[in-house]
Design goal:
- The structure is a single chain.
- By secondary structure, the chain is of the alpha+beta class.
- 26% of the residues lie in helices and 34% in strands.
- The longest helix is centred in the last third of the chain and has 28 residues.
- 33% of the residues are buried.
């Protein structure tokens, strides 16, 4: 497999097969157990890890891992919000995401989406466009993986019109939900990104562990409001 997960944006016609993307995502997450351990966040619930930038990387990698009881969410509840309509749901619990749009639905398990982020001044809005590929193993122990890779729409005027105006950033991420023997769910995510523009890399890199760790309590807080309303876990 010559393609490697990185922040290098691909044109839609350059995207490798789905099984290649999923295999690379699994391989990456399996490697995170040996990454350098960092701080814990959310009262010790979320562990941060990291890996320096390698020869094939455009930026360093960061990872977070957390374990959850059914009181937090069951596997099906997690998957219903992270494996289904992911970008739509992310907008509900990630405060910086103001707009999302589906650019192109490729299959039941693959689609291109664009996300529009705003930040406090003087930071300008950012646009991230990604191809998301999902894979669910529905037999016990259940597992599900979501791989997001950056996409370049500049060669397709019609698709590019769907993107908001803003500085283009790029990120690649792999998320995995895994049912554990004790009934808990492990939520593991690894990402590499650049914000674009003139933000110094040391600023973004130093804040990454805390930023990605914060998504866990933000998701749970939002999900519990949805659960209390009795919304079906497979809805958007």
């Amino acid at each position: 497999m010559s393609y490697q997960l990185s922040i290098t944006a691909l044109k839609p016609q350059e995207v490798p097969p789905e099984d290649t993307i999923i295999a690379l995502g699994q391989e990456l997450l399996d490697s995170t157990v040996a990454w350098k351990k960092g701080k814990t966040f959310a009262k010790g619930k979320v562990l941060a890890l990291s890996r320096p930038k390698g020869p094939a990387d455009g930026a360093p990698w960061h990872c977070r891992v957390s374990e959850h009881t059914k009181e937090d969410a069951t596997f099906d509840e997690f998957w219903g919000k992270l494996g289904v309509n992911k970008v739509v749901n992310e907008k509900e619990f990630v405060g910086a995401i103001k707009k999302v749009a589906q650019v192109k639905r490729i299959s039941e398990t693959q689609s291109i989406s664009t996300l529009y982020y705003t930040f406090p001044p003087p930071v300008s809005p950012r646009v991230f466009t990604v191809l998301q590929t999902i894979h669910l193993v529905d037999s016990s122990p259940k597992s599900g993986i979501i791989v997001s890779i950056p996409i370049d729409l500049s060669a397709d005027e019609e698709l590019a019109k769907i993107e908001e105006k803003g500085i283009k950033g790029r990120y690649v991420s792999v998320e995995r939900l895994l049912e554990l023997e004790d009934g808990k769910v492990e939520w593991r995510m690894a990402t590499s990104s650049i914000p674009g523009g003139r933000i110094p890399s040391f600023v973004t890199e130093s804040s990454m562990p805390g930023q990605i760790a914060a998504d866990v309590p933000h998701f749970l807080k939002w999900f519990h409001t949805v659960r209390e309303k009795g919304d079906n876990y497979m809805t958007s």
